[in-house]
Specification:
The complex is a heterotrimer of chains A (297), B (253) and C (302). Chain B has helices at residues 45-52, 82-88, 103-113, 119-132, 136-139, 152-165, 182-195, 208-214, 232-237, 242-248, and strands at 5-16, 19-30, 34-38, 62-70, 73-74, 89-92, 170-174, 200-204, 217-222, 225-231. Chain B is an alpha/beta fold and 253 residues long. In chain C, helix 4 crosses helix 7 (152-176), helix 9 (193-222) runs antiparallel to helix 12 and helix 11 runs antiparallel to helix 12 (268-301). The chains are: A mainly alpha (297), B alpha/beta (253), C mainly alpha (302).
């Protein structure tokens, strides 16, 4: 019986291992299918023309498949949203972890979580019907559906990601280290700036990268509020068409396994590579510069 | 006792929320002397020590009654700035807690936050403090290396150097050797002997031999109360109270 | 060695006691931090305010219980509500068992090492895959390759994979809070590891896992891009009868009405109403999870 038990244990261990590997398996499957459906486009256009081509006219005759305007749009929307979300997210995290009284934190934290829980389509809708007319009036621009509006919405969507991971990093700085600083006559602010932040820098960096990764991959918001013009933006009030928006908007009308269809999958590959890069960098930082103290990152 | 009175605690009570952690404690500390606070764990000696530089301010729902005078000024007076106060009263903690910075930056930290920018002055003070903490010879070739690479004993002496750099008047030590091996402990004790000429030192220890070795005056705490205080020789050889005698002879605690 | 007067504090000797300036700096920065937190709260409040203000009028019994009529310019959203429920429950039915088993391996079995690190890297990257890419994958794999067609099944599978990392994360978190002494006690009584996991560890972690499950459902319910190509359609008047049917869903309905409907302006109230229903659904689940967790934390502190 004992042998039987041991046998069962070993097999259960293997079973759990196989299940745990599902995530990697799925990730690989995603890659395989994206590539399988995306690569055929390169029979028509070269990789360089695809990525650096300035014109995205998939339905004209002859079609042009240059996704550079889409990449430029994705990058500019993401960078601009980071300008909003980084200060907001990190400062809120410091506020929550270091300054807020217990009762205030118990209210503010769930609020940040709820902000994260709003479905992206609702934020997109809000940006379309409320923010867009507002921007149009306020800045007197041709359309309120533009790069700035999309960045603003994406900014608030990535705040919760940045805030919650940063907060974990900040609050896992050992208490003893903070006390040492206080005991040397540093004020609370000096302690935060000179001891707590440097010690939690790796966690904060990770949070920022993950926040940006979320922003670049976000679909509904850019689909609904970015304006949809496949042009390289020259001003922050220009309408743009980031990669996810292009995929989501055109997939329904692209003929099955036509060039347009392949081009959209190839765009998906590029998008996937962007986020994969962000995530690997974030993972690397979190792993290599493991925080001292009981960090859980 | 014929030394200068440096700090004086008068009828101190301390509460964690509703729990009274310290009750009616009055105790004087003299310049140039080492005062040891002994007692079983949970007796309030560490809490008491943390009242002396208002470290307990950080604990929510805590409350202090009574007075603590530093050079005849009440440190709990509302006009007193806590940061300034803490730069006058240094502290060394139970476990070495260097910052994850270089050795140099650890010692320079207190100077920098207190607004000193003169680079030569900072360098001089760092060297001097490391010397005072008997660490200079061991680290002089690598003061720009991370402090976390030092051994536990070295780290603790670094923390002492860090406290010395801003020239405090009083140094509080909270079981500074409890996390160290015997050799490192001995070094710390020698250091305390050297330092007491210049500073008022107050040390919490659970180790009675250590109290006997390093201190001039010993105060025995039990259950949040100060039971007995006297010159160390006297307290350990001829305690006045039965409770003290029981403790120092190891009958409880 | 420099000799300085040791009696006086160095602050008085060497630098101006500029403590007032330091305090001032602290006040300014802390106000800034507080302000940042306030902005987030305000953003949330503004969004909710506009949705409530414009949406509450649209909501009535007919709206919740009737299908849309007159090319979606009137009527209700019942098929969307039902569709979203099917999709998110289907998603959780897929991701919960896989998620829990994965978390058990990571927390109870795996030591630390290369394999573990690769698995974690895989999970983190899966969590980072953009939702539209999940949509593409669902289309290529479930809809086309596995020939499921545009169906509830394909959509639920896609959403399930998407919410898998959420479930794994929450379950692991819950397993970590189970004190090591419980495991030791159980193993000490001669129980096998498996018995320990199923009889001691999992029951203890159950409320935490439940919290994660609720959050997973709410995440799946709100997603649009993954179901655009895999499950959702503009309009179908009938409620689904099998898992191979196409369906309507709340998030997709909002998108369609507000961007591609026949009369975008005229159906604004319907758009607000649908958004409000979706938000209430999602927030309801999140609040439940938050409250559950708060109660849990309180219990752990005793």
């Amino acid at each position: 019986m004992a042998i039987n038990r041991q046998f069962k244990e070993r097999w259960m261990r293997r079973f759990f291992f196989v299940i745990a590997s599902t995530s990697i398996f799925i990730l690989l499957l995603i890659m395989i299918f994206l590539f399988a459906e995306g690569l055929p486009i390169f029979k028509k256009v070269s990789l360089t023309d695809f990525i650096f081509g300035k014109y995205w006219y998939p339905t004209s005759e002859p079609p042009e498949f240059g996704i550079f305007p889409l990449i430029a749009a994705s990058i500019s929307v993401t960078v601009l949203s980071a300008v909003i979300s980084i200060p907001l997210g990190v400062m809120t995290a410091i506020y929550l972890a270091e300054i807020a009284a217990f009762k205030v934190r118990e209210i503010v934290k769930p609020m940040v979580e709820l902000l994260a829980a709003i479905p992206s389509v609702v934020i997109g809708f809000f940006g379309m019907v409320i923010v867009s007319p507002f921007l149009q009036d306020m800045f007197d621009v041709a359309t309120g559906l533009n790069l700035f509006n999309a960045a603003l919405m994406l900014g608030f969507m990535s705040v919760p990601t940045i805030c919650s991971i940063s907060e974990d990093a900040v609050s896992s700085v050992p208490r003893a280290m903070k006390e040492a600083s206080f005991a040397l006559g540093a004020t609370h602010f000096e302690t935060i700036f000179k001891v707590v932040l440097p010690a939690s820098l790796s966690g904060i960096t990770t949070s920022i990268i993950l926040g940006m990764s979320r922003a670049i991959g976000e679909t509904m918001v850019v689909l609904m509020v970015a304006g949809g013009a496949a042009m390289i933006p020259l001003s922050i009030f220009d309408p743009v068409r980031p990669m996810p928006a292009s995929i989501a908007a055109e997939m329904a009308e692209a003929p099955f396994r036509g060039d347009h269809y392949y081009a959209l999958f190839a765009t998906g590959v590029v998008l996937f590579c962007f986020t994969l890069m962000f995530n690997i960098i974030a993972d690397h930082i979190a792993y290599k510069y493991k925080q001292t103290g009981d960090s859980t990152l | 006792m014929d030394a200068d009175l440096k700090m004086s605690v008068k009828q101190l009570n301390f509460f964690y929320d509703k729990f009274k952690a310290l009750e009616n404690i009055s105790l004087d500390f003299y310049a140039g002397h080492v005062t040891a606070l002994i007692g079983p764990s949970g007796c309030g000696k560490s809490t008491f020590l943390r009242c002396l530089n208002r470290m307990n301010d950080l604990i929510p729902k805590s409350r202090v009654e009574g007075k603590i005078l530093l050079d005849n000024e009440d440190i709990y007076d509302c006009a007193v700035n806590v940061a300034t106060l803490r730069s006058r009263i240094g502290m060394v903690f139970q476990k070495p807690n260097p910052f994850p910075k270089t050795i140099f930056e650890n010692v320079a930290y207190g100077l920098r936050v207190n607004g000193i920018k003169d680079k030569t002055l900072i360098a001089d003070r760092v060297t001097e403090s490391l010397n005072q903490a008997a660490l200079w010879d061991e680290v002089k070739d690598r003061i720009y290396d991370s402090a976390l690479e030092l051994s536990g004993g070295q780290q603790q002496r670094l923390c002492i150097a860090r406290a010395l750099a801003i020239k405090p008047e009083v140094i509080l030590m909270d079981e500074p050797a409890s996390a160290l091996d015997p050799i490192a402990t001995q070094k710390i004790e020698e250091l305390i002997h050297q330092l007491k000429k210049m500073f008022t030192i107050i040390i919490v220890t659970h180790n009675m031999q250590q109290a006997a070795r390093v201190s001039d005056i010993t105060a025995f705490f039990y259950m949040g109360k100060l039971i007995e205080t006297d010159k160390t020789d006297t307290l350990f050889t001829r305690p006045k109270l039965k409770q003290t005698e029981d403790y120092i002879t190891g009958r409880f605690g | 060695m420099t000799k300085t007067d040791v009696k006086k504090p160095i602050t008085e000797q060497l630098a101006l006691p500029h403590i007032k300036y330091r305090k001032f700096k602290q006040t300014i920065f802390f106000a800034l931090f507080r302000f940042a937190a306030l902005i987030n709260g305000t953003a949330l409040a503004i969004i909710l305010f506009f949705l409530l203000k414009n949406g509450y009028k649209a909501i009535n019994w007919t709206f919740l219980t009737q299908p849309p009529i007159d090319s979606m310019t009137k009527g209700g959203i019942l098929p969307c509500i039902v569709g979203t429920l099917y999709l998110s429950l289907g998603a959780i039915a897929i991701s919960l068992p896989i998620g829990i088993a994965s978390a058990i391996y990571l927390n109870e079995y795996a030591g630390s090492g290369r394999v573990l690190r690769i698995i974690r890297l895989g999970i983190n990257n899966l969590a980072g895959v953009p939702s539209v890419v999940f949509g593409l994958f669902g289309l290529a794999f479930f809809v086309i390759y596995l020939k499921m067609g545009v169906s509830i099944l394909a959509g639920a599978l896609t959403l399930g994979l998407l919410s898998l990392p959420v479930i794994i994360g929450a379950t692991e978190e819950a397993l970590k809070t189970v004190p090591e002494t419980y495991r030791e006690a159980s193993l000490g009584l001669g129980a096998t590891k498996l018995q320990t996991i199923f009889r001691v560890v999992l029951p203890c972690a159950m409320p935490g896992i439940l919290t994660g499950a609720i959050l997973g459902i709410s995440r799946a319910a709100g997603e649009t891009a993954p179901i655009m190509f895999t499950a959702a359609v503009f309009f179908t008047p009938d409620l689904p009868s099998s898992i191979f049917d196409e369906i309507m869903a709340l998030p997709y309905h909002i998108y369609v009405l507000s961007t591609a409907g026949t009369e975008i302006e005229a159906t604004r109230p319907l758009q607000y109403g649908t958004s409000l229903v979706l938000i209430v659904l999602v927030f309801g689940m999140n609040l439940a999870a938050i409250l559950l967790r708060a109660r849990l934390r309180k219990r752990m502190h005793i």
